[in-house]
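Researcher: Quick test of sequence recovery. Tokens follow.
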């Protein structure tokens, strides 16, 4: 169904509110040595998160907004939980002993559902990197095997993010993934397109041409 201008404006407004709500939680994410530099960089946070949320249909945005509100009411922080779950890869021993006991437990069925989504999205990202190598060079590395304490892969990041969603939000997100796949789309490409448009480029090709070439890319 084609989205009207009014519907699109309302969805964009909702996406903005979700980004601001996330940023408020992001300010409370604990970081060793004090707040991380990225926690005070609203322009970059806004650009990156809005780019993702602009690909989401309204019911998914509404469901995730409800997740954030429910987390506030329960004294939880979904951004803290997202980054904590990433530590299962980057700091496995610390995660097992100190972090995992504080997080909601995910069932084997839930983990399997998330892994199916992660596999599709990593495949999309790999395809995007191949077609837009300069833009890809500025993005996260793709796979958990490439994780370091300084750099977290897309695969690990997705596990953390999906693990913070409610069951309803995850179901709606899977619907988005399935619909995108059925029409031959690529969610990475759509998301990065929004990113470069928000940065002032007319297209992915224009943004790709403007990037400094990386040796060997």
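Model:
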């Amino acid at each position: 169904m084609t989205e009207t201008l009014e519907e699109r404006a309302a969805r964009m407004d909702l996406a903005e509110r979700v980004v601001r709500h996330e940023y408020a939680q992001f300010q409370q994410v604990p970081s060793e040595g004090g707040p991380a530099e990225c926690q005070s960089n609203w322009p970059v946070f806004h650009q990156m998160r809005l780019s993702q949320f602009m690909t989401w249909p309204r019911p998914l945005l509404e469901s995730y907004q409800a997740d954030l509100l429910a987390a506030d009411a329960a004294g939880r922080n979904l951004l803290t939980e997202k980054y904590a779950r990433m530590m299962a890869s980057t700091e496995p021993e610390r995660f097992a002993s100190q972090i995992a006991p504080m997080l909601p437990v995910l069932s084997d069925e839930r983990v399997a559902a998330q892994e199916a989504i992660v596999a599709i999205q990593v495949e999309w990202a790999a395809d995007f990197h191949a077609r837009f190598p300069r833009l890809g060079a500025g993005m996260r590395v793709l796979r958990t095997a490439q994780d370091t304490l300084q750099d977290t892969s897309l695969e690990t990041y997705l596990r953390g993010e999906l693990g913070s969603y409610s069951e309803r939000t995850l179901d709606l997100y899977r619907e988005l993934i399935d619909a995108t796949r059925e029409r031959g789309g690529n969610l990475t490409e759509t998301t990065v397109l929004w990113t470069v448009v928000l940065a002032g480029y007319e297209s992915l090709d224009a943004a790709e041409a403007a990037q400094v070439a990386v040796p060997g890319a």
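Residues 5-210 form one domain.
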